[in-house]
């Protein structure tokens, strides 16, 4: 494909995407293909001869689109928003075209330096404090700094490695981990990536202490955390990291970061704050409270622009207060990567900030998003999501059949079908069954996509708002589908008791 | 940015990329900006109001391009080729536009199933054997399978976790690692990612046994490996993984996979094959020898289409013979990810194949490349690189001043400046100094970019061919620059002895 052919073919792809976005709302959100059917359709060997791009695009439409669940659909309300956006797609396209590899500062200085600047910008806008910046306001170098990770799972894993490095005075990286000695703490609502990090780091699942939450707010119980820390220390174990959740996956609960930080530091443990979904909301002054305590207490903090901040996957922004712990845990300098800039200490080599060596120019994507929307545009997007979620909360509250399952937070509403049309409460097991059936009914209708969780053993629906193409009308339409499905299920339930 | 604005703006980005590729050969390959200068230039807060894309593109040209080292430059010969290509850029653009999240099969079935099919296609084309396929030729499900990782570092890390899972009967993930008990083996030429994997997994650096290589071929010494295994077992340690290198970073050496596999399995250890750069060459029948022994002996294997196979970063293809060990080490199923398809066991949930939970639709990029080039186009690209490298080898051999430092392999030639113009051998330390100075001279000329390594304490240049825009003329031109710089250095050295 020559440069001229590239121009022609690229325009076809651009048109394909613009058309896809314009019409995705007319498609069923959730794919209902059978396992194996897409593989069956695309099976066959690599062709011997080149095929025209038109053939590929035609096969995307014919063979792949039926098997897509459409994350950019305006009525995708499952899991969390995973915004693509025109600006991010173009920023990522630039990154692909430039094709620079930023493993070292020296292998493309702009890749590292733009990332430092953009993460400093974002740290300030999120209220994280100067302590997390590469460069302080007065121009002097900071002790901390930010890096773009692929996902919050990787951010949490590297936070744990940094914490372990600090707790062991560097012995963990050389000597390995002593089984049973180190412990990690988070609430029962923490994301599963913490457990995975414990598995991967050699600490093992049993190192993770699962702390109870308040049954209504779903916030970590600080007294229970204090007890757990005390018991482990008494038994000779070493608390390595406490993780606070800012916006849990289940219900968006925000843990008491300040109290947790004080406790963690009293025991010499690292405080990691997982704000993967909710943290970006702090760009709006009225939502800045979500990051309260981070500036004073966190050792590390992660939030994902690739979730609710319009920045196509992958782009997880991660900051540390003390980069020496992170770099100490991960740095290696083989001869073939040695260079004068690295040895001068004047540059950031991001290979030492994550598990991978290679890395693409993700900062240009985030930079394009921040500039194309501006703070005003980003805030408008976030506020639209919060307003739409408030409408969902209003509808839930006004309907006697539904009960909130936890306090709503920002764009996330957790609720369940818990009563009949008259408002008479259903037995818990029956409400579980009907709530799950309600989700299946909505999801298989093709009209919208919700997901679920369990709280205290009860089944709960999660309605996560925040799509970049979602409008108030999409919320109303989805509510109608949900309400009609509830009518049908309750009617059916009434007709066939038990 | 509306859909119509997106079309307009996207065309500007496409034109920017086409122009960049067309003119990149006229730019200095290696950026020579001072540390901090790019950051200084782009510094400032996030703007309040949206900025037009034109402003972003203009700033890319004005502020970022001077700080780029151009990996897509036709005379980029450092490290390894990291091919972008028109087809890959368009495939990745599709992935961004679709914006699907493939953490579970259920969250977008096409994302998982296309990946399974494409990796089966590639496994067959690379001669890895049916054992590494998701689906056998007869349609029955295999015990192994492939996954797209971000980098070979992650592939190696997950191979180690799978090996550890198998060696401990699953205890590592629950109980953690016992410091000092487990060992890992590879040659002194193995990539630093193995050491990093040992650090991250809790085994620690001291778990890694560095096995000597032959001083000329740089291949692992099998007898030394056997000794090391024996000594560890005698001391009560458990060999977990042996890593064979197919194309070392330094010189492209190919370890004796068959003998290493036999030894590894005799001790119950996992054989991981790191063919990150060289493995893709096996698409050409005449280079299929690089993967000899893999089909019979490897437990896992990685090669990176994002290096020499025209597939814009990131795309690292990784296969395992027994997926249950990998999935066993990494799977977690919290309530909010439960779904009927996962529970049926009939689907692949790729979240259990890597550290991350979230994942983008990378398979559509690789699929677009494989179809747009076809096997014939891919082979033509690989063969061009090998032919250009053979020309470099011929030039080195014909010039009395230069000495090969190891056997050339495929697209990689390692050599050093070791004699004066008359062919009289220089003292080793002087040859080291002049070889390093020669690299600096070439790289700062802006004409080409080479990198270096050390072999047995001696400084060696690495000339890595394989760029998608590289022609024979680029090789000749670079040789001229190199030869002229050597003239100057040797003349200067002769004038100022010592």
UniProtKB/TrEMBL annotation, chains A, B:
InterPro entries: Aromatic_deC, PyrdxlP-dep_de-COase, PyrdxlP-dep_Trfase, PyrdxlP-dep_Trfase_major, PyrdxlP-dep_Trfase_small, Pyridoxal-P_BS. The keyword Transferase applies. Gene3D superfamilies: Aspartate Aminotransferase, domain 1, dopa decarboxylase, N-terminal domain, Type I PLP-dependent aspartate aminotransferase-like (Major domain). One of its GO terms (cellular component) is cytoplasm. Pfam families: Pyridoxal_deC (PF00282). PROSITE patterns: DDC_GAD_HDC_YDC. The modification N6-(pyridoxal phosphate)lysine is found at residue 307. Its cofactor is pyridoxal 5'-phosphate. Keywords: Aminotransferase, Decarboxylase, Lyase, Pyridoxal phosphate, Transferase. The keyword Lyase applies. GO terms for molecular function: aromatic-L-amino-acid decarboxylase activity; pyridoxal phosphate binding; transaminase activity. GO terms for biological process: amino acid metabolic process; carboxylic acid metabolic process. Belongs to the group II decarboxylase family. This is Aminotransferase class V-fold PLP-dependent enzyme.
């Amino acid at each position: 494909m020559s440069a001229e052919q590239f121009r022609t073919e690229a325009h076809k792809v651009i048109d394909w995407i613009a058309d896809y976005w314009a019409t995705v709302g007319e498609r069923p959100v959730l794919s209902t293909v059978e396992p194996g059917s897409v593989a069956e359709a695309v099976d066959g060997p690599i062709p011997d001869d080149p095929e025209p791009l038109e053939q590929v695009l035609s096969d995307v439409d014919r063979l792949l689109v039926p098997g897509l669940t459409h994350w950019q659909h305006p009525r995708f309300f499952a899991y969390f928003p995973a915004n693509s956006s025109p600006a991010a797609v173009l920023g990522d396209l630039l990154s692909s075209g430039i094709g620079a590899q930023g493993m070292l500062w020296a292998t493309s200085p702009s890749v590292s330096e733009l990332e430092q600047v953009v993460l400093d910008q974002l740290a300030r806008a999120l209220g994280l404090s100067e302590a997390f910046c590469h460069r302080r306001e007065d121009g002097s170098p900071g002790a901390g700094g930010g890096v773009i990770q692929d996902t919050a799972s990787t951010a949490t894993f590297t936070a744990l490695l940094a914490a372990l490095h600090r707790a062991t005075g560097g012995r963990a990286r050389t000597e390995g981990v002593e089984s049973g000695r180190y412990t990690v703490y988070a609430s029962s609502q923490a994301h599963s990536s913490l457990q995975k990090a414990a598995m991967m780091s050699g600490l093992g699942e049993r190192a993770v202490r699962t702390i109870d939450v308040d049954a209504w707010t779903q916030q970590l119980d600080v007294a229970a955390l204090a007890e757990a820390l005390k018991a482990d220390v008494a038994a000779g174990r070493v608390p390595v990291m406490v993780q606070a959740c800012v916006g849990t996956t289940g219900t968006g609960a925000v843990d008491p970061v300040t109290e947790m930080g004080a406790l963690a530091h009293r025991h010499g443990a690292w405080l990691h704050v997982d704000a993967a979904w909710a943290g970006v909301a702090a760009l709006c002054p009225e939502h800045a409270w979500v990051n309260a305590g981070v500036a004073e207490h966190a050792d590390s903090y992660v939030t994902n622009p690739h979730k609710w901040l319009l920045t196509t996957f992958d782009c997880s922004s991660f900051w540390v207060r003390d980069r020496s712990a992170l770099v100490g845990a991960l740095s290696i300098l083989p001869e073939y990567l040695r260079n004068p800039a690295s040895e001068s200490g004047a540059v950031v080599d991001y290979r030492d900030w994550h598990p991978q060596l290679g890395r693409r120019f993700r900062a240009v994507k985030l930079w394009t998003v921040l500039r194309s929307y501006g703070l005003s545009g980003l805030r408008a997007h976030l506020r639209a999501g919060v307003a739409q979620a408030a409408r969902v909360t209003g509808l839930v509250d006004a309907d006697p059949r539904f009960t909130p399952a936890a306090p709503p937070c920002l764009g996330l509403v957790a609720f369940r079908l818990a009563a009949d049309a008259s408002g008479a409460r259903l037995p818990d097991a029956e409400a579980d069954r009907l709530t799950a059936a309600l989700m299946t009914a909505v999801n298989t209708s093709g009209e919208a996509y919700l997901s679920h969780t369990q709280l205290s053993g009860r089944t709960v629906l999660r309605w996560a708002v925040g799509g970049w193409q979602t409008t108030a009308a999409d919320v109303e339409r989805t509510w109608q589908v949900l309400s009609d499905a509830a009518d049908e299920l309750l009617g059916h339930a009434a007709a066939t008791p038990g």
